[in-house]
Amino acid sequence: MASGKRDAVRGKVIEGRSTAAIEGDVTVFLIGMRITRLRAVRSWWPVLMAMPRMLRELSRDAGSGLLGSRVVSGGPREMTVIQYWSSHEQLIAYASAADGEHRPAWAAFNRRLRAGRGRVGFWHETFVVPAGSYESIYVNMPAFGLGAATGVIPVGRRGERAAERLAR
Asked: Which InterPro entries match (predicted)?
């Protein structure tokens, strides 16, 4: 584990300016749910509980392609998970693997969705970001986002300005 990644896990503030320690393409996968009817617990609770199982499964498999993730709450009715992947091929492979947590969770969710008549909503977005088309900066804070997923390095290694880091 890179030093920056260890620091992020502990939440240690990294003095100065740093940037994500990643080379090459990255895939950003956003997935979320929205509870339409709070009282319809049977419709949304299994959906809510499936994601932690999948994230644990992916974290245990170093070759899965998942670089890191972060859960973000949009209030009592909304949850989003931001995921960083090595490639979209690895994301698709996990989503379609017959022996993983995702396929049964997806099948169960689809059954509940049809029966639930709008009690819970679901969405996802996938972005394949080519090398040189992303940049990051973190100033006097723990590694965050892509930096937490990949570790961080001093900004100077990639360029002092955003335009320099984007041109890589």
From this structure: Monooxy_af470
Q: What is the CATH classification number for the domain harbouring 108?
A: 3.30.70.100
Instruction: Give one word for 15, left, alpha or beta, with left for phi > 0 and alpha for psi -120 to 50.
Output: beta
Task: Report how many domains make up the chain.
Answer: 2
Q: Examine the domain organization and report whether 86 and 152 are in the same domain.
A: no
Give the residue numbers spanning the domain of 62. 26-129
Q: Which residues contact 92 (CB under 8 A, 6 or more apart)?
A: none
Least confidently predicted of 5-19, 123-137, 141-155: 5-19
In the predicted model, is pLDDT for residue 2 greater than 90? no
pTM: 0.85
Q: Which residues contact 60 (CB under 8 A, 6 or more apart)?
A: none
150 shares a domain with 116: no
Q: What is the mean pLDDT of residues 69-83?
A: 92
